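User: Could you check the structure of this?
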Amino acid sequence: MKFSTIFFLSFIFVPLVSFKPMEVKTLKKNKTSVYFLTDKQELETLIRKTYEWIETKKTKVDFDVVENKKGDKYVALNVKTHNKILAELKNSNFFTQQFIDNYNKIALKIGENLKTNKIEYFVGELPPYGSDSNPWCDCQDNPESYWKTLKINDLKIQNNKATFYWTWTEWKETPTYKVTAVKENGIWRIAVLDGFDYKSFTKI
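Assistant: Sure, the predicted C-alpha cells are below.
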C-alpha cells in the first residue's frame, strides 16, 4: 500500500518538476512586442536605432561621384557605390520604399545633371546640389553618440502616418528636424526626412 502511494505521488511529481512555462514566456514576449510600447516610444526607438545605424554601419558618402580623366571635375554618379547604399537602406528595415525611391531619384538626377553639364562640380569645391549641411540632420557637426538621447517633439499621428521633429539634448543648439513615418504591418518605418527633399536638393 505504501509502495503504491509513493509510486502514485512520484508519477504526479515528475511531470510537475519537468514542466517549463515556455509558452507563457513566449506569450509574454509577443505581448511585449505588440502592446508594451506606445507609438511615441516606438518612434523614438526607431529614430535612435536609425541614426546609430547611419553613423556606425551605413556607407558614409551619399551620392558619391566620379572624376574625369584629368581629375579636376566630377562628371558622373558612382553607380556602384550608390547601388550599395540602396541595398543597405532596404536591408536596414528602417525605411519605406517611398524613402528609398526618393533617395534614388535624387541620385539619378544628380548624375544626369553632371553628365549633361547642367551643373559643374570641380574637385575641391562644395557640391552644387543639396546644402552645406549633412542632409541626415541638417547639421555640420553633432555631439558624440547623439543618437542615444534623440527626442521627438510635436508628434501627430493620423491613419498610421506620423509626423514629428527630433532634437538632441547634449548641446543647446540643436536641429529641429522633421520626419514622416508610416506604420506598415504594425511596424513604424521612415518615409520622409526633411533633408532629402527632391526639389530643393536638385535645384539648379
